[in-house]
Amino acid sequence: MKTLAIVVLLALLPLGCSFSYSSESSWKSSKSSSGSSSGGEDEKEAYRDDVRDFTATWAAETGDVAGFEDGLTTVARRHGITDWEADDATFTAIGAGLKRARVRGAELARYEAILARDEPAKVALLRRGYGS
Q1: What confidence score (pLDDT) does residue 39 get?
Q2: Is residue 22, in this structure, part of any structural domain at all?
Q3: Contact assessment for residue 127 and residue 96, using Cβ atoms and an 8 Å cutoff
Q4: From its phi and psi, is residue 63 left (phi > 0), alpha (psi between -120 and 50) or beta?
Q5: Using one digit for the tens of pLDDT, what is the confidence trace for 39-59?
Q6: Distances (CA, A) of 29 to 2, 50, 91
Q7: Residue 49 domain flag
Q8: Which of 20, 39, 52, 121 gives 20 to 30 Å between its CA and that of 95?
Q9: What is the CB neighbour count within 10 angstroms for residue 132?
Q10: Which residue range is the domain that position 47 belongs to?
Q11: What is the pLDDT of residues 65-107, one digit of tens each?
Q12: Does the CA dihedral 27-70-80-39 come out positive or negative?
């Protein structure tokens, strides 16, 4: 059932449907994509919000890392980001999403190792997002 929920979410992404639980995040995302944004910072904030919300949904529903990376790639592309792994905001937002999903302890350490690939700088960004 959890896998079905993720599949449905990923299927809806190309249609421009928002999977976010936050109406504020959806509003910022649509504002940014409509061109009425005041600049780059609003676009970055919309991206961070969408990554955070996607991560929280994913962590609450499933732990399929391949599915997570595919979904994250889709979210990044919607925001014009072609290399999410090189974007510091991605890892900060992933940490915030894990916190929102109430991931703790050994499970959090496992996600740090897998998602940040044990790279100290990425783990630090993930922890910064988790702590905010």
Answers
A1: 57
A2: no
A3: no
A4: alpha
A5: 588 899 999 999 999 999 999
A6: 25, 8, 18
A7: yes
A8: 39
A9: 10
A10: 27-131
A11: 778 999 999 999 999 999 999 999 999 999 999 999 999 999 9
A12: positive
CB 129 within 8 A of CB 94: yes
Provide CB contacts within 8 A for 5, sequence distance 6+. 61, 62
Residue 53 lies in a domain: yes
**Total tally of structural domains belonging to the chain:** 1
Evaluate whether residue 120 is within a structural domain: yes
What's the one-letter identity of residue 33?
S
Quote the tokens at residue 1. Answer: 């059932």
What would the pLDDT profile of 19-40 be if each residue is shown by its tens digit?
A: 433 333 443 444 444 444 455 8
Beta carbons within 8 Å of 6's beta carbon, 6+ residues apart: 58, 61, 62, 64, 67, 71
Q: What would the two tokens of residue 16 be? A: 């421009």
